[in-house]
């Protein structure tokens, strides 16, 4: 139950990711390797058009896209320095 609550809280705070990502990529504390990995993950998500659940199934098709995007954002948050996570309360 606790894990589900953490994921729901993560989804609610998604509006904070734009400034977080900007600062993540501008930060000197984040290694270039981590920045390149984040760019690679985001690029793979944007480039490959296939889905687990097709988009023509309505809401269910969108849910898998959101799940993949949240997974990628969670990986980027794990790579970020702790002060950056604390600043945006992520």
Characterize the biggest β-sheet. Answer: none
Distance between the termini: 19 Å
Assess the beta-strand content as a share of residues.
Answer: under 5%
Order of helices and strands: HHHHH
Q: How many DSSP helices?
A: 5
- What's the overall average pLDDT, rounded? 83
Which structural class fits the helix and strand makeup?
mainly alpha
What is the helical fraction, as a range of percent? over 70%
Low-confidence stretches: none
Q: Any idea how many domains?
A: 1
Q: If you compute it from the alpha carbons, what radius of gyration comes out, rounded to the nearest whole angstrom?
A: 14 Å
**Strand count:** 0
> What is the global morphology?
globular
InterPro entries: DUF1232 (IPR010652), UCP029962 (IPR016941)
Membrane topology: Multi-pass membrane protein
Protein name: DUF1232 domain-containing protein
Keywords: Membrane, Transmembrane, Transmembrane helix
Keywords:
single chain; about 90 residues; mainly alpha; about 0% strand; globular; DUF1232; membrane
Give a verbal description of the structure.
This is DUF1232 domain-containing protein. It is found in: Endomembrane system. Keywords: Membrane, Transmembrane, Transmembrane helix. With 90 residues, this protein is mainly alpha-helical. The protein has one domain (2-88). 72% of the residues lie in helices and 0% in strands. Helix 3 (32-47) packs antiparallel against helix 4 (59-79). It is globular and about 45 Å long.
């Amino acid at each position: 139950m606790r894990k589900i609550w953490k994921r729901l809280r993560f989804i609610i705070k998604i509006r904070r990711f734009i400034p977080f990502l900007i600062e993540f990529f501008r930060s000197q504390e984040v290694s270039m390797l981590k920045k390149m990995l984040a760019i690679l993950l985001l690029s793979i998500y944007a480039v490959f058009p296939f889905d687990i659940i097709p988009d023509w199934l309505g809401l269910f098709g969108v849910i898998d896209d959101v799940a993949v995007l949240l997974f990628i954002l969670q990986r980027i948050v794990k790579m970020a320095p702790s002060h950056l996570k604390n600043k945006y309360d992520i």
